[in-house]
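Lecture 7, part B: from sequences to assemblies.

Below are the input chains for today's worked example.
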Amino acid sequence: MQFDAHIPDGSLQEKWKNHKFNVKLVNPANKRKYKIIVVGSGLAGASAAATFGELGYNVDCFCFQDSPRRAHSIAAQGGINAAKNYQNDGDSVFRLFYDTIKGGDFRAREANVYRLAEVSASIIDQCVAQGVPFAREYGGLLSNRSFGGAQVSRTFYAAGQTGQQLLLGAYSALSRQIGAKTVTMHSRTEMLDLVLVDGHAKGIITRDLVTGEIKAHAADAVVLATGGYGNVFYLSTNAKGCNVTATYRAYKKGAGFANPCYTQIHPTCIPVSGDHQSKLTLMSESLRNDGRVWVPLKKGDQRSPKEIPEKERDYYLERKYPSFGNLSPRDIASRSAKEVCDEGRGVGPGGLGVYLDFSDAIKRLGLDMIKERYGNLFDMYQQITAENPYETPMRIYPAVHYTMGGLWVDYNLMSNIPGLHVAGEANFSDHGANRLGASALMQGLADGYFVLPYTIGNYLASQQPKSVTTDAPEFKQALQSVKDQTAKFLAIKGKRSVDSFHRELGKIMWDYCGMARTKEGLQTALQRIPELRKEFWTDLRILGDEKNVNISLEKAGRVADFMEFAELMCRDALEREESCGGHFRTEHQTEDGEAKRNDEKFSHAAIWEYKGQEQAPVRHREELTFENVKLSTRSYK
Amino acid sequence: MDFKLHVWRQTAPESAGKMQAYDVKDISPDSSFLEMLDQVNETLNEKGEEPIAFDHDCREGICGSCSMVINGYAHGPQKATTTCQLHMRSFKDGVDIHVEPFKAKAFPVLKDLVVDRTAFDRIMAAGGYISINTGNAQDANNLPISKELSDKAFDAATCIGCGACVAACKNASAMLFVSAKVTQLASLPQGEPERKIRATSMVEQMDKEGFGNCTNQYECGAVCPKEIDVANIAKLNQEFILAKLK
Amino acid sequence: MNTVRSFFISSIGKKIAMAITGAAITGFALAHLGGNLLAYGGQDIFNNYAAGMKKQPMLTLIWFMRVGLLAFFVVHIGIGIKLTMENSQARAHRYAVRKFRRASLPSRTMIYSGLILLAFVLFHLAHYTFFLVHPEFGNLVDSSGRHDAYAMVVAGFSSVPVSLFYMLSMILLWMHLCHGGSSLFQTLGVSHPKYRALTSYVGPIVATVLLLGNCSIPLAVLLGVIGGGH
Ligand SMILES: Cc1cc2nc3c(=O)[nH]c(=O)nc-3n(C[C@H](O)[C@H](O)[C@H](O)COP(=O)(O)OP(=O)(O)OC[C@H]3O[C@@H](n4cnc5c(N)ncnc54)[C@H](O)[C@@H]3O)c2cc1C
Ligand code: HEM
Ligand code: HEM
Ligand code: SF4
Ligand code: F3S
Ligand code: FES
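Predicted structure of the full complex, as structure tokens:
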């Protein structure tokens, strides 16, 4: 199998410029003859679909929610990075590029990351022009905050709901195209298979979640912008509907899946409170701007936080990483929290929590300022925990948050299947082994507004418009197999609910493929997952029928894919015999417990090729070469 | 905690629905309303009854998916709180809880508690945007905007499109939702060129969708989980009058 | 023409028509109250005022007002009924359990208070303007040969049921205006926070002035304050 990244020639600074000049173009009059399918209406999908529409293409856009505006991007809180250097604090495209590469623990592709940093500034311009109300200073100019992993202030934000505002901006652009009839929106429609014709991605099979109709859609190119797969852990900060189905089914059709084991565990989430828990809530990383993280010095200290005097507190991030302190990158902050809790110094129920304390900040800045900056987050915390964070420190604990892995794509964001493009969290491209805060929003919008609109033309120019219709036998076949699977779920008539299986799978993944992974653990998981999968296929109970809204049936499809995908993740984690970014193998750490990379053997992206249900997948690699940065041990001390 | 739950059950869009009672036991006060429903669904599944269908996604009060009328209030008895953020500790042990879908002609019920809110999307497509093609924007800081205006726009922009305003309004009017978007864009200089056409087209589409007429009941603002101010409705009226006067 | 039409069939346009006509009727009611309070001045002053209204140049003005008022009433009632019908259709199905957090009782019952007011106005016209209830009211003449409106009012309100009906109607008018008198500013687009606080008082104040002023007249008659020495 071929994995050529098609990185353009020239210096890092010139690659994108040259490439934009060299890509093939589609004549404006011809654009409307081409149909593009965009699956997903998050930042990546909505921005791509809207821009394609503006360019004149004919677009079909899909999402499983009842409205494109509800895509999971809506939940992002903290902010979006851009190398604007409005603060005059030494930021530049190169610095953003460098921070992102370093933050990703040198496991991302230089050319892609540089391009990301390059277009980042245009994103802010575009969004402001759309009416996105970013936070501003009294002088009327845009305000910035700092985020983990950076020593400059380059994060643009809209209170604690940046993702919402950005998505509503993209959604408004999308709505405009829907109104102009260049985009047809299919909400409550789930993609269940990818269709290849002559090896090219030429369509998808969907299920209408209201009527149950299973339908084929043909197009000249397909874009998957279906988000991340953090929900394989059941408990995560992701929305309940987030899934791997679209990308996993593409994988089963031959698309390479890159670095599935790279998962980000976010350090500031509200701790689990009981078995009823269905999801974990993130407290934005921006809180670490002003909050201080600590645990008691003594093990099992049961005193209330206020009674613990200053000198009996351990501000462990400030202690261990004096220069980045509370703003050290996510993977490091998460692992440190796990460490102190493993030592028995954790707080709250089960000892699985650390304090995030604002009392100093309130003293320094005043209550009003803190309210203005974080009011909605504090309210949310109080809502969930019934504790008042203005008075008593928040309790936080790491939780699964983001998945850096995804479908492999080249510089054009095209997978190894011609015509299949992948954008946003669904691809693997820009964050390496760890994503810096405020970079996912940037990447999603970069892909959708500024990259795909150029690169997709390059593919389309080589295709005859409407060369394929849904009459092709490949569509008939795919349609049938989706129908069969739906029927199969309903026919099992076992005893257990989908959720119970999902929960159990999540527990296995968290225990053995979570924050710290070991060879034995991963092997255990690799043994238990197939057992659970077998039980799933014999003991699942789905009531109701397929002709109406059927929430269990929808979930069953997603969990069935997680059941297979989980195995791929563990396999990838097992093979990557090093610690890097979000992937921490206990066997590979330095004496003081920091991650130990193995650049000699693992400076590559691992790309998995599906070989059939009965056969093990094959691991390919894309070697990563670093010509513009020096590989160093990531240090935030 | 134990509850007596009364839930609207309806199998399909055309079928007639009815309220059905369930005894619910052993609910943790820390669980959210939707987690309580998850638990009910788990037992229903065990008993061989089809689980209660409801919309949800983010479960942190931002996506606007969750949509139920609980004990007579859209999103339930707690102010400024979406259903998914409502916790069982805010109910007394042993009480009756009535759960119904958002009811409006423009929001047909699809199943149980799931309704069709695509009317909102069509209103947005009629004018809820600023026409700016990708790539045409000037530098973001070339256009300073006072913090006051920007905050005003932001407050209006926090609408999550949940539809509770429609559900709670005695007239099933969508004015709060529409006014929030119109106010956001009318407050900003970027929104100026399309100001008139936006107000009129959005209102026209809103009327077409079969929402009722606003009679200034202000219930919408009182149930809105994001506390969108009803002053936005006055603003929309103003925009509309000015647009029509030309 | 088209824009005018589209304006008035739009939901907001209809509301604006309600507000303008409602405001106009309220304006009349206030002026009318002023006239009615002259009854406290005694027979001469009141009859003089009543007769003045029927002489030129006032008479022409009054006719303009009458035509305008009739039109306002027709529009106000017509659109009020249409709005209410459309609004009840927009809800399709009722809730099993329904509670309100902010919407006040007066605001929820505008159509009922309005329709009862319609009944009141019709009765009131029959009573004092067309003399249909008591044809003899038309023949009352005072010592100066003017129509004795004063005596008519005193006679009319001497009936306890009639007075009670008037006062009950005034309570409904109070309810109607408590909401309507403020809500019309919202409809007409007053959105500035400073003025909004102010306008929220207008309705209740106007409503209360009308309630107290209007009710005082039948009460005064019943208590003998007006017409006692007659
Ligand atoms: C709580 C939280 C806070 C975050 N905060 C930040 C932050 O502050 N800054 C930052 O940069 N990043 C943040 N992130 C990460 C960031 O929000 C996401 O990575 C990013 O929004 C993903 O965008 P996307 O467009 O790729 O996918 P999504 O927004 O997840 O959209 C996926 C779309 O695909 C559709 N879809 C999925 N599967 C199917 C299917 N099978 N068929 C049809 N449609 C399908 C969905 O309907 C949806 O429209 C946060 C993430 C979380 C969970
Ligand atoms: C005679 C029968 C009447 C009927 C059927 C009637 C009906 C209504 C209705 C249904 C409304 C509500 C519309 C809305 O809130 O948008 C309304 C509003 C109003 N009415 Fe009446 N009404 C009547 C008489 C009156 C009278 C006599 C007055 C004044 C003395 C009056 C003044 C108002 C005002 C000021 C409003 C508020 C308009 C707004 O909210 O913008 N109405 N009326
Ligand atoms: C209790 C209080 C009221 C009293 C004592 C009162 C008294 C009168 C009298 C005496 C007349 C006849 C005047 C004349 O023809 O010489 C009259 C006319 C009238 N009243 Fe009232 N009225 C009262 C309240 C109202 C109210 C609340 C309304 C409705 C807003 C109203 C509407 C009218 C109208 C429309 C006329 C006819 C005016 C005309 O001839 O053009 N009245 N009223
Ligand atoms: S205005 Fe409030 S209630 Fe209405 S849709 Fe927006 S957030 Fe929901
Ligand atoms: S409750 Fe309804 S009547 Fe108007 S003010 Fe709100 S839309
Ligand atoms: S589930 Fe997203 S707002 Fe409630």
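Note for the exam: The pocket of protoporphyrin IX containing FE (ligand 3) is lined by residues C 25, 29, 32, 36, 50, 62, 66, 121, 124-125, 128-129, 149, 153, 166, 173, 214, 217-218 (CB under 6 Å). Keep this in mind when comparing with the next example.
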